[in-house]
Design a protein that fits this description.
15% helix; globular; 5-stranded mixed sheet; alpha+beta; 278 residues
Length: 278
């Protein structure tokens, strides 16, 4: 499997941006060592957490279901990559009718494609990192590649589709939930999911000011299991060529602030949870 084709260079934030981001994160990491708590929902083990019971996964406590304040750091600011479809590089799905949805496996509007793969539910809990309180009404735009490593609207074979993209508003506990599929591992990157946080649904659907852009990392043990199933040709080989430690986004801290906790199995699906401090 090869990575999706890149658009013209002037639209890509590029290595210079990524290096600048990593330098800023290393600087912030000095303060984290002074006593800032780890992000809620992240596993202490850099392989993540996987259990065999998807029913238990959907009811496991997360930052959004625990009582009282939840201690959380700000999630690192990251590049949105070259395939955001938020108007910053080519197409803009955020202003289209149908983008506000929880199930993002299907294309909407005039497109009719469906992304196939191992089922994945993504649960993000959006929190005010200063006050450790849920951000009720904040909105999240989430997107990722399909099981073949293609990004809808950009990659050959998926340019006429807009699947695996959607917006949700956070509930009173700060939670947003997306029904999707487990993304592929393409060459050069650790398996990941992109997202942008907005202050409100109106801001998100107007492609307004972004509060935070970041990425979620998926744990190795779940990836190994998924990539042994049909439909993920090349992902196992691509995964073997990288690691959280050498990934150009997660590598500065091994993904400790962005590694999701994943539960479930490849037959009935997985649930990925992450606390997101902004």
């Amino acid at each position: 499997m090869t990575p999706p084709p890149k658009p013209p260079r002037e639209h890509d934030l590029g290595l210079e941006y990524d290096l600048g981001t990593l330098h800023r994160r290393r600087f912030l990491g000095l303060f984290a060592g002074a006593g800032l708590a780890a992000v809620a929902g992240c596993s202490a083990d850099d392989t993540g957490s996987v259990t065999a019971d998807p029913t238990a996964a959907s009811t496991s406590p997360t930052a959004s279901t625990t009582s009282g304040a939840t201690d959380v750091d700000e999630i690192p600011q990251e590049t949105g990559g070259p395939y955001p479809a938020d108007g910053s590089n080519g197409p803009n799905v955020l202003t289209e009718s149908g983008i506000v949805r929880s199930d993002i496996t299907k294309s909407f509007g005039s497109a009719s494609g469906v992304a196939s793969g191992v089922p994945l539910t993504v649960e993000l809990t959006i929190l005010d990192a200063d006050k450790d309180t849920p951000l009720n009404g904040a909105a999240v735009y989430l997107w990722h590649c399909d099981a073949q490593g293609r990004y809808s609207l950009y990659s050959d074979g998926a340019t006429d589709e807009n699947y695996l993209r959607g917006v949700q508003a956070a509930d009173s506990t700060g939670k947003v939930t997306f029904t999707t599929i487990f993304p592929a591992a393409y060459m050069g990157r650790w398996p990941h999911i992109h997202f942008e946080v907005y202050s409100s649904l109106n801001d998100a659907t107007a492609a307004g000011k972004i509060t935070r852009t970041s990425q979620l990392a998926l744990p190795k043990d779940a990836c190994d299991t998924v990539y042994a199933t049909d439909g993920y040709d090349g992902s196992a080989q691509n995964l073997a060529r990288t690691s959280l430690e050498n990934d150009n986004v997660f590598g500065d801290d091994g993904g400790v602030h962005q590694l999701a906790t994943v539960t479930g199995n490849a037959t009935e699906g997985y649930v990925a949870t992450l606390g997101v401090g902004v």
